[in-house]
Amino acid sequence: MNYYQWKATNGNIGDVYAFGEEEAKIKVEALFDVVASEIKLLKENVSKEHIKGKEFDNKED
Fold it and tell me: Which of 5, 7, 11, 16 is the most core-located residue (most Cβ within 10 A)?
């Protein structure tokens, strides 16, 4: 599964996990009732721990 950032035509921004860019767009548009204008891949092949929130890439002290 991959990790994507999205931006909608109304200015909303978020992130979503999906297997591909097209799936990410479909999820965003269906879940948030927006039109996705940009989909950007942030990370490929994320681990189950990352998805569950147990792995953090940017730890703040």
Answer: 16
Q: Which amino acid is at 21?
A: E
Distance (Å, whole) CA 23 – CA 8? 15
Sheet harboring 13-18: ordered strands across? 13-18, 2-8, 36-43
Which residues fall within 8 angstroms of residue 2, CB to CB, at 6 or more apart? 17, 18, 19, 20, 24, 41, 42, 43, 44, 45, 46
- Residue 50 C-alpha from the chain's centroid: 12
pLDDT < 50: residue spans in the chain: 59-61
Question: Roughly how many angstroms between the first and final C-alpha of the chain, as a whole number?
Answer: 28
